[in-house]
Amino acid sequence: MHGVVTFYRDFRTTPPGRVSVRVCRAEACRAVAREALMEHAAASLGVTRGGTTPDGAVTLDEVFCLGNCALGPAVQVGDRLHGRVTPARLDALIGQGR
After folding, report:
1. Exposure on the CB side of residue 23, measured as CA atoms within 13 A
2. Residue 63 domain-assigned?
3. Would 38 be classed as within a structural domain?
4. Could you tell me the pTM of the whole model?
5. Measured torsion, CA atoms of residues 36, 38, 43, 49, in degrees rounded to the nearest 10
6. 61 pairs with which residues across the strands?
7. 37: domain range?
8. Interatomic CA distance for residues 27 and 36, integer angstroms
9. CA-closest candidate to residue 37, choices 51, 18, 52, 21
10. Are 67 and 24 in contact (CB under 8 A)?
């Protein structure tokens, strides 16, 4: 059981945050500064990849592909997909979701 839970990203051993932020990690998004965006998100939220803020508001996850390759880097905040996300725009999107 532990192997399955720790292998698949959609399974969790702790409750997720009220808002889920998923950053695409596919090649098209990597080519347009996805890593810098993910590092910014982790630093500004104070969590690691896959982590949830201490107040339980936001969970930061990676996903292999959001299917928005022409508009990378792509991010999903809650149920909404966003393209060409910059660090400043991501901060605004997360603020709206809280």
Report:
1. 31
2. yes
3. yes
4. 0.88
5. -140
6. 22
7. 14-97
8. 14
9. 21
10. no
